[in-house]
Amino acid sequence: MRIGLGLPTAIAGSPAGLTLEWARLAEAGPFASLAVHDRLAFDSLEAVAALAAVAAVTRRIRLASLVLIAPLRGSAIMLAKQARTVATLAGAGRLTLGLGVGPRRDDYEASGVPFEQRGRLLDEQLVDLPPLLGEEVELLIGGSSQPALAHMVRVADGLCHEGGAPRVFHAAADRARIAWSDAGRPGQPRLWGLGYFALGPDSAELGRQALQRYYSFTGGYAMRIAPGLLTSADSIAAYCEGYQEAGCDDLVLFPAVADITQVERLAGALQERWR
Amino acid sequence: MRIVCIGGGPGGLYFAIRAKRADPAHEITVYERNRPDDTFGFGVVFSAATMRFLAEHDPGIYHDLMQHVTSWDPFTVIHHGQVHRVSGVGFSAIERRQLLLVLQQQARELSVELLFQHEVSDPRAHLDADLVVGSDGVHSTVRNAFRQQLRPYIEVGPTHFSWLGTDRPFDTLTFFFEANEHGRFGAHVYPFAPDRATFIVETDHETYRRAGATAFTEADTAAYCERLFAAQLGGHRLLCNRSLWQQFRTVRCATWHHENVVLIGDAAHTAHFSVGSGTKMAMEDALALSQALERFPDDVRSALTAFEQERRPRVRHIQAMARTSFDWWSTFRHYLDWPPARFSFHFITRSQFRWDTLAGRDGGYLSSIEAAAGIDVRSRIIAVEPAEGDREELTRLASCHPLTLTRVLPVSDQGRVSPEDGRLDDYADLAGRLALGAQLSHAGPRGACLPRRYGLDRPLPDAEAWPLLAASAIPYSPASSVPQAMDRSDMERVRNDFAQAARRAALLGFRFLQLHFGHGYLLGTFISPLTNRRRDEYGGDILNRMRFPLEVLEATRAEFPAELAVAISATDWQVGGLTETDMLAAARLLRDRGVDFVTALGGQTTPQSKPPYGRCFQMLLAGKIQNEAAVPAIAAGGITDLADAKTVLLSGRAERCLLDGIHHT
Fold first, then answer.
1. Rounded distance, CA B424 to CA B409, Å?
2. Considering only residues 502 to 541 of chain B, which have any Cβ-Cβ distance to chain A shorter than 8 Å?
3. Interface test with B, best of A108, A178, A216 (most B CBs within 10 A)
4. Mutation test of the interface with chain A: which of B407, B418, B454, B662, choosing the one with the most A Cβ atoms within 10 A?
5. Most buried pick, B36, B178, B575, B592, via CB within 10 A?
6. pTM here?
7. For residue A67, cis peptide bond before it (omega within 30 degrees of 0)
8. Which candidate from A127, A153, A174 shows the least CB-CB separation from B615?
9. Are B5 and B16 contacting, i.e. CB atoms less than 8 angstroms apart?
10. Using an 8 Å Cβ cutoff, are A202 and A165 in contact?
């Protein structure tokens, strides 16, 4: 299992220069990928533009959108154009494009796209997208619902899980493998997981608050996700181990605190307890 | 905020408590038509998870309830007098009246206004409140008053049940099954006090009619059931409490809220009582609603939207579980003559339990099931070659399984999915020396595509594609080319291709043959109403839709003397697809034309099908084919290891199973 690092693009109040500094540091560190979340009605950086900038300051590391809210991004042709642009700028088959519908009604309301139509819109985009995308871009579907699994087996290379305890991921991973095999796809689906971390003194509480703000659209989810925040090397190691056992290919740890020291703290924690 | 709760059951009261505790400034009134200590419904069942939920969110109430709660760890299935006990399940029960008294007491202490014997005939009269909560149960007047906005859909179940009580002491959750001259009955018994239990009797429609229960008074029902269950009651009585015969109503609504009105609990959604989740769902709704109000203190509508968004997926999950459990209760008459061990295991695995989930709870029970079944599960597992072919893996699989199927092979060039499909003759050197079966198919509208490592149904470039066939001229996906609707000469050609391939398979030494008539492939397009729009004798009802598949089967059967299976998409996992009645009819037709097995695949009839992927996710379909259509079934879908195979085979749902090659860690 490879470990990736989330970019601080969706933490409210993130300082302007932080993202690129973060990316340069990660490129030099033990991380296999750098990933972005996508939100519209929130104090965050636009995901595709951020990836393009990160592509310019890195050479090795994989770049991933986990995940883009596809129905807010117009036609498949526009989506494919953006993805191929980033893939071309990054070179060396570095792009993983995760697509989903996202759970947030406010993002849809902000963009005037009807929330109730999100499934149908994604259906339509995914009919046209695969031939436009080319073979260089790894395509993931976000989520683990029945429609997400159905989309994954039809068009994608794998799945990006929405995050949660390792046993939750494990159950979803089993369903994904079963779906893959049932559909007659050869091999195995690529399985991406994610988690949230905040390391160092005072970071835990700051991180919890940030997560609650980020997930405030649904109180229940925020309440479940916030206690899952990884705040020590031990909890990170246990989380990694659980995901690895479940057959995760890439686990991306997203920061909950927008501070450059988080990158080194995470690298240190991984080195100390994971490998 | 001024809040009106219509209905003072557990959901309404618990919401009032939570909301008032969060903000004592709320003025909350609960209207209840009954008296404070009316006792309808006897006991309420909570799972261990629900008790944990209460302990975590409400230690005070949890503590008060624990004074009155009866808990038991195992549950008991009594069938033909034989007792099977399964431990490690963990349920608790409380008398409904006690639960209400505890909640009423809490509410009073918080100064919630409780108005009993107060029937609200028109909820609209309360619309001037900031929030109106419809917590008034399955027959909700609030839901009815706003039915145009909430769009409820109520499904009336096929079974009849009567809700009784008994003073016979029971020490566990117990299920009885009995037969008499009228038919078959089951009883769910939930003890909630040392000498009190809820005793629900359930039966099918025919039995209900033959018993004359349509004309029963409460006393007649009690007397009849006392005679029926005399052996189990041991002289104890059955107690009545509005014990009329009813049919279970599953309530669903397009939405649970409209402006400042919201439904919670049974008013919004019900789930068959056999999963024991009604009160739990109502209380979880209450908690989620009060939390949503805390998050949006000045914006009731956003709060209601957030509440519904939070609760809908969880309720959907429980309703799906309840549906499978209810389905079991609707069809258990088919299984009542089974040996008790198999019967109990079939019962226990009707919904969420499988072999591996039970293994950690009661290994002893599972050993007894295995011993009683006396079958060698390993000898009934069929492996399948990986999707893009792999001779080495095929050889390995064949060395450790009694039968291994090839990947799906086309009967002709036109029937290929992709140019990389295999051929029967690729196996010429293996078929004679390994225990192999061949899978034959014609891809129909799913042909002329890129190999599946690129995704499903991605059409080949025009120059490399070939013309496609289907029952009707409907493209498989919006990106697929339009197939030609088959005419008589196409049919003859395809039928001959199958027959010829079958002859070749027999000649090469294959011991088994499976014809693939599912997944939107050519023969599958005839069977599903989603893909067959023909107006000739090959379209219309299931007899017509099966006509061509049966012709192919007959021609193939004549050429292949060994075991022959036909795989169908037993459900399309899609609205408007094959019905259960049609699935059973199709299975009987296949049986009558001499198949040895029907394999229960599902979905992929169109790209819109959404299978509920998971462990053993199609085993209930196999079970119906095997037991209701009386043809040996092969289960498929999410059977990933020996434990899954045991779940499927020892519960009598299938004769064989196809092992899913998910090869995980």
1. 7
2. 519
3. A178
4. B662
5. B178
6. 0.90
7. yes
8. A174
9. yes
10. no
Q: Which DSSP category does B444 fall into? A: G
Q: What is the mean pLDDT of residues A209-224?
A: 66
Positions of B annotated as catalytic residues are: 521
CB contact under 8 A, A185 and B457: no
How far apart (Å, rounded) are the C-alpha atoms in residues B22 and B20? Answer: 5
- Least Cα distance to B408 among A183, A65, A56, A239 occurs for A183
CA angle at B313 for the pair B311 and B317, rounded to the nearest 5°: 115
pLDDT of residue B81: 83
What are the structure tokens assigned to B461, written together?
């470039």
**Whether A209 contacts A132, CB under 8 Å:** no
Tell me the three state secondary structure of residue A123.
Answer: helix
Q: Return mean pLDDT, chain B.
A: 93
Q: Which residue of A has its CA nearest to B608?
A: A150
Mean pLDDT of all residues in chain A? Answer: 91
Res. A218 pLDDT band, cuts 50 70 90 = low
pLDDT of residue B72: 83
Are the Cβ atoms of A220 and B310 closer than 8 angstroms?
yes
Q: Using CA atoms, how far apart are residues A233 and A231, in angstroms rounded to an integer?
A: 7
**Residues in CB range of B376: below 8 A, 6 or more apart:** none
Q: What is the pLDDT of residue B40?
A: 65
Look-up: residue for tokens 């020291």? A261
> Per the CB < 8 Å rule, is B660 touching A181?
yes
CA–CA dist B407, B418 (Å, integer): 13
Q: How far is A136 from chain B (nearest CA, A)?
A: 12
Give the closest residue to B50 by CA, choosing from B94, B98, B16, B107: B94
Interface of B with A in 393-452 (CB under 8 A): 408, 451-452
Q: Which of A123, A116, A157, A165 is nearest to A138 (CA)?
A: A157
CA–CA separation, A227 vs B657, rounded Å? 42
Tokens of B62: 């949890």
- Quote the pLDDT of residue B665: 41
Q: Which residues of A58-79 are buried (b: 16+ CB within 10 A; e: fewer)?
A: beebbbbbbbbbbbbbeebeeb
Number of A/B CB contacts below 8 angstroms equals 108
A200: left (phi over 0), alpha (psi -120 to 50) or beta: left
CB atoms within 10 A of CB B490: 15
Q: Is the dihedral of CA B215, B218, B220, B224 positive or negative?
A: positive
- CA A244 to chain B, closest CA, distance in angstroms equals 10
A139, A99 contact by CB (below 8 A): yes
CA distance B183 to B339: 18
- For residue A220, the model assigns a pLDDT of 53
- Cβ contacts (< 8 Å) between A134 and chain B: which residues? none
Query: Which residue pairs, CB below 8 angstroms and at least 24 apart, start in A83-92?
Result: A83/A48, A83/A133, A83/A137, A84/A132, A84/A133, A84/A134, A84/A137, A85/A52, A86/A48, A86/A51, A86/A52, A86/A55, A87/A134, A87/A136, A87/A137, A89/A52, A89/A55, A89/A56, A90/A51, A90/A55, A90/A58, A90/A63, A91/A59, A92/A59
ipTM: 0.90
Q: Is residue B522 within 8 Å of B494, Cβ to Cβ?
A: yes
Measured CA to CA, the distance from residue B408 to residue B422 in angstroms comes to: 8
pLDDT for A224 equals 60
- Residue B483: partners with Cβ closer than 8 Å, 6 or more residues away: B444, B445, B467, B468, B469, B470, B473, B474, B475, B476
Residues 6 or more apart from B389 whose CB is under 8 A from it? B407, B422, B426
| C-beta of residue B35 within 8 angstroms of C-beta of residue B165 | no
